[in-house]
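Lab notebook page, bench 4
Experiment: in silico fold of construct C2
Operator: M.H.
Input chain length: 502 residues
Purpose: comparison with the prior construct
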Amino acid sequence: MANNVWTSFIRWSIVTTLTHYAVIHNTGVSRRLLRYRTRYLSLLNCLLSPRNMAMTVKVDSYKYLSGFGNHFSSEALEGALPQGQNAPQKCPYGLYAEQLSGTAFTVDRRHNQRRLRQDASQRVAVHQAWLYRIRPSVAHLPYAFYKKIHPNFASSEMQYIPNQLRWSPFQLPADDSPVDFLHGLVTIAGAGDPTVKNGLAVHIYACNKSMEKRAMYNSDGDFLIVPQTGRLDITTEFGKMMVEPLEIVVIPRGIKFSVHLPQTHARGYILEVFGDHFELPDLGPIGANGLANPRDFLTPEAAFEDKDETWKIFNKYAGQLFIANQGHSPFDVVAWHGNYVPYTYDLRKFNAVNSVTFDHMDPSIFTVLTSKSAFPGTAIADFVIFPPRWSVQEHTFRPPYFHRNCMTEFMGLITGQYEAKAKGFLPGGASHMTPHGPDADTFEKASNEKLVPARVADNTMAFMFESSLMLGTTPWALSTEVLQSDYEQIWSGLKSHFRTNK
């Protein structure tokens, strides 16, 4: 909204200035300015349009390191990182050395996330980081059970049903009911088991309060957070990140974080994977460049606080939430190095590829990140987006085709209107699909429109969590009042066009 207002103000200012100059100064030059002001405005519209704002620059007060899977080094105080070893007898500044492992010590280096090239044989280094902190993480009181986050996905509480499901925008908490990020997290669907590190969960969050002196970490898996409305000011053990809608943030298993709200409320989606960490998809014949480029991922630089005060630490463990008190801030890491880190990515920087001849390409070409399964070419979860782009295919039905999929698809909409659904699929809502495809209105329009090069999805960003596992739906997701009871009706208008002659 702010960007739209600012853009409109720029347009208005320039046109008003040109008109004013032309009226006050009745010269040949000024008259030509007035005559051609529409051309200037058209050029301005082109320069300011969303499709030309894709190469955004992240602007906030925090500092970041660029790259995906790199081995980073960062220190908030000069000289805080030990030189030449990880665990000296005495660390600089009297700090404690603490290792955080994201993979087993003995994992095959060829099967780790960090990569210098897309070739799997070039993947190097285990997932780990060394933290140099004021107090070690063991300094806390015992954990106690707090509440259940989600059911066992193999239990009878879950509903595995073949129907298409769609939800209107998930509700934000009322102003008089403060809810922070942690307590506004609700599970929609899931499969597998975090205790055996295989599976995934899909959550939404809706909150209107910051996590004051509260932090959490996830022992079950990695969080991929997709803000839909409202910015998130996220403090982690590795530093601070500001994340807004059209950006994502990944917080790997075991990393503590706290979410503050710069605005009055926030809502979004979360993909949690219990198995392998997220990595960039293999590019294959695409080559070395394209899709999400590694340099566009940002990891926070070290920042710390030295505060002796009571904090509540929440731990998501086997689908349950546990709580413990500790007498100091958990964000006391003065320096760190490693490749097991949180990171953020701007979806507007995605370099989309598509067909320039005929037919609608499979949505896998829009994969941002993937968490692979034990079966080659198959994912526990893919994170896929449908960004603004050109559509130029000839003699082709251009919207996403009708589809039955052995994979499970869960879709959300960050902003705009999704190209395959004319009505009902709204920002902040979601759908869980088995057989799926465009609605009747979209089909009729796309089947008869003149095929010329056209922009698709301007001012829109839809996404998909796709999994090889069958997602069960939670009781809450099936009982919430925003579940659309008549979703299947969008296809009721699809009539037969069959005839015996071509």
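Observations: The mean pLDDT is 87. Residues 2-48 form one domain.
Next step: discuss at group meeting.
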